[in-house]
Design goal:
- By secondary structure, the chain is an alpha/beta fold.
- It has helices at about 1-10, 45, 55-65, 80-90, 105-120, 140-145, 150, 170-175, 200-210, 265, 285-295, 300-320, 345-355, 375-390; strands at about 25, 30-35, 40, 95-100, 125-130, 160-165, 180-185, 190, 195, 215-220, 245, 260-265, 325-330, 335-340, 355-360, 360, 365-370.
- The chain has a seven-stranded mixed β-sheet with strand order 4-12-11-10-7-5-6, sandwiched between helices.
- Helix 3 (about 55-65) packs antiparallel against helix 11 (about 285-295).
- The longest helix is centred in the C-terminal third of the chain and has 24 residues, at about 300-320.
- Bound molecules: pyridoxal-5'-phosphate (PLP).
- Pyridoxal-5'-phosphate (PLP) binds near residues 104, 137, 220 and 249.
Length: about 400
């Protein structure tokens, strides 16, 4: 491991602060590192390998596609894209899709679409509202709508005409909303920001205000979508219709793919040449994503919601004993945030890693769990037993 760490310093741009571990194999929720040590994965690679690592149907679909055709330019038809859009519509709303390669790219496209449609109404209609503490990606446009200054610092000037609203604060939203807003971007459950679900009344207000001012309501479903919260898409907890949803992460279960899915009537105002991509929607990515969508069904949702209820019950019991160190607990499906008090989440994550459990952080001092859906009560018990000891 020491040699890898040394050589990486020589060859790779040091953008990542890494744990001194390199994984070589993964199956379901089990990871194996170069020394043969195994770990239970409570991250799914940040909500990516949600169906479990090395998912059989996804792997078979990629292998099958690999020897047929992997890439041609988007100036030719790719029928799998149509099939995939149909499957996304069936689980969300009737709409039209564009496929790209990542979450940031999907949000970037959604920003361009929002600006374009806004400009058609009025040249002043280009303001975007997003949430304080939100995360929407790392490109210049997406850091601009990301409500965390640390991601923007040093990269100024960022995109102008963006304002940030306190989540679930109706008056903050009302105050910042006006006729120049072209879109409101929401994460249905804030992920990087610390696992914060939106309130129903806040989402209803956002929907109403967007309608009133001819702005688009965009749900960034990149972390919360694809069954992660116990619904197919996070917005479905709120009984509202989005104008646009953006997808990535779990859509390919590890194969890179992003998507913008939008209301057909809005999509019909967009014309060839406005946007594009070389790799987006290539045959391999589409094969992977079609195999993912084929595995999303009500049985899976029921399982996720059962595991979620079990997690919440066990966490609440744990907090009874450890109320001095465990603060708020937020659980939406298998998107779990545990606030720690007076104990650094980084040290807890390190201790869990030493004991063979991979977890994440979020927000200020929140332990974030996003396990693959293959996880069982047995592994949940094992994790919580270790967490209890560490705390
Ligand atoms: C991860 C994430 C993104 C960015 O996706 P990338 O594929 O890393 O570009 C955007 N929005 C949310 C909510 C995310 O969790």
């Amino acid at each position: 491991m020491d040699q890898i760490i040394q050589e990486e310093k020589e060859h790779l741009i040091g953008f990542f602060k890494r744990f001194p571990i390199a994984f070589t194999r993964a199956e379901g929720h089990t990871l194996t590192d170069i020394n043969g040590k195994t770990y239970t994965d409570f991250t799914a690679g940040i909500s990516v390998c949600s169906l479990g690592h090395a998912n059989r149907r996804v792997n078979d679909a990629i292998k099958d596609q690999l020897d047929k055709i992997t890439h041609m330019t988007n100036i030719f038809y790719v029928p799998g894209q149509i099939e995939l859009s149909r499957k996304i519509s069936a689980k969300s709303f009737n709409g039209k899709s564009f496929f790209c390669n990542s979450g940031a790219e999907a949000n970037d496209a959604a920003i361009k679409i929002s600006r374009f449609l806004g400009n058609k109404i009025s040249p002043k209609k280009n303001k975007i509202l997003s949430m304080e503490s939100s995360f929407h990606g790392r490109t210049i446009a997406t850091i601009s709508i990301t409500g965390q200054p640390k991601y923007r610092q040093g990269f100024e000037p960022i995109l102008p005409h963006v304002d940030y609203v306190k989540i679930n604060d109706m008056s903050s939203l009302e105050e910042k909303m006006d006729e120049n807003v072209c879109a409101i971007f929401l994460e249905p459950v804030m992920g990087e920001g610390g696992i914060f679900p939106l309130s129903r009344s806040f989402v209803a207000k956002a929907r109403m205000l967007a309608q009133k001012h001819q702005a688009l309501l965009v749900f960034d479903e990149i972390q919360a979508g694809i069954a992660r919260t116990g619904k197919y898409f996070g917005y479905q907890w709120y009984d509202v219709e989005p104008d646009i949803i953006t997808l990535a992460k779990a859509l390919g279960n590890g194969f890179p793919i992003g998507a913008v899915h939008m209301k057909s009537a809005l999509a019909d105002q967009l014309t060839p040449g406005l946007h594009g991509t070389t790799f987006g929607g290539n045959f391999l990515a589409i094969a992977a994503a079609n195999a993912v969508m084929d595995q999303l069904d009500d049985t899976l949702l029921t399982k996720i919601n059962e595991l979620s209820a079990y997690f919440l019950e066990r966490l609440n019991a744990l907090r009874k004993d450890k109320h001095t160190v465990i603060g708020d607990i937020r659980v939406k499906g298998l998107m779990i945030g545990i606030d720690l008090i007076g104990i650094d989440v980084a040290s807890v994550i390190q201790d869990l890693l030493d004991r063979g459990f991979v977890t994440l952080r979020a927000g200020d001092n929140t332990l974030r769990l996003l396990p693959p859906f293959t996880i069982t009560k047995k592994e949940i018990d094992a994790l919580l037993e270790q967490l209890m000891e560490i705390l």
